[in-house]
Amino acid sequence: MSTDLSTVSAVDRRRVAFATVVGTAVEWYDYFIYASAAGLVFGTLFFEPAGPGFGTILSFLTVGVSFLFRPLGAFLAGHFGDKVGRRPVLVATLILMGASTALIGLLPTYEAIGIGAPLLLVLLRILQGVSAGGEWGGAVLMAVEHAPRNRRGLFGAMPQIGVPIGLLMASAMMASMDALFPGDAFLDWGWRIPFLFSVVLILVGSWLRRSVEESPVFAEIAERKEQAKAPIVDLFARFTPLVLLSALVFVGNSAVGYMTTGGYIQRYATDPDGALGLDRGSVLWAVTVSSISWLLATLAAGWICDVIGRRNTYIVGWCVQGVFVLTLFPLVNTGSVVLLGVGLVLLTLGLGLTYGAQSVWYTELFPASVRFSGVSISYALGSILGGAFAPTIAQWIQQSTGSSMNVAYYLLGMTALGLVGTLLLRDRKGIDLSPASEAKQQVGIYAWEK
């Protein structure tokens, strides 16, 4: 018996796709609002005694520290997602993320309460990390496990495009607040409004997620009473190399992507003590435009990988990303906001090709009984090794060497690691995802297998 998708109507599939897009966009809006604020205001408001240079590094460290807690979120979500279902986990992560984000918007600054301010900021950022660690796996499985076999890539791209939509919303909101509350007004309280707005988004997102049916693959697992008693233990006992290689694939994308989503480029381009000192609002709008091109490239990758395969799409993507990593800083360093925007748009072409196919490839790599745990933990580990401290590392490289091209070489190295992970895994396009095919799902995973 294989999972019967014939009972899933086109309307149901569209509802699931829409719910995963909206829910993921809301989650990542919350996450990216923090990263944007970390690059623009948190160094001043929460780490002022450290001075402008070290205060910025500390601010970026708070972006990275949340990644250390993503595996905790992935472990918890994977355990419950493989035992009680995908949908309840998705609702819980959305509410946790929204509540943490709204509370950040209410925090007093260092000037008001001293050391308690950065400590509370870090605590809420940790809760964001726990939520983000559990969010992604559930969203992609709901999308891919509802999809027809020949369109899994396209359906899997739906939660993926929620990430650039989240960046678009976050950048546009910050740019709007900068325009409405210029100068000290933005620092005083204009930056807080995007955080508080998350309450509205969370109500919409949680309602949508509650409205969709449970994944048909998990429904069959539950019907057959084949839920793993200890999914995490089973995962690492049998598939540790797969988890590590899947994480390596994501390293190359997340390190490069967090140049904008982690706030580094925004800080680099607008730093009043730096060589550029560009207008904050203009840079935020350039990032907003690049998020649109990232969205389109990610969606295109979902369609492309249904035609040429997941692995081939990735290989093309790494080549494109490697080229445009090297053109990014020469364009940014011209001091032209337009050319900065061009550099970011070009970069998103490779980012989209190495992100749009990730949902479906991860889903097809892991067996049904440990799938939620596998995709969640691989994603969380990849984000730690790649994106977690990429803005901090980039800031350190820039300050230590005085050369932005050294930052580019670091990003090129991370891209090469992603390519290595890709070459060591097999394409499993169209494999049966149902628990009835669990035995077949455990073979033919690695490139070295016969």
UniProtKB/TrEMBL annotation:
InterPro entries named in the record: MFS, MFS_dom, MFS_trans_sf
Main location: membrane
Keyword Kinase among record annotations: no
Keywords associated with the record: Cell membrane, Membrane, Transmembrane, Transmembrane helix, Transport
Signal peptide: none
Coiled coil regions in record: none
Entry's localization field: Cell membrane
Membrane topology: Multi-pass membrane protein
Gene3D superfamilies linked: MFS general substrate transporter like domains
Lineage: superkingdom: Bacteria
Domain Major facilitator superfamily (MFS) profile: 16-430
Positions of transmembrane segments: 28-47, 53-77, 89-107, 113-133, 154-177, 189-208, 242-265, 285-305, 312-331, 337-356, 377-397, 409-425
Protein name, as recorded: MFS transporter
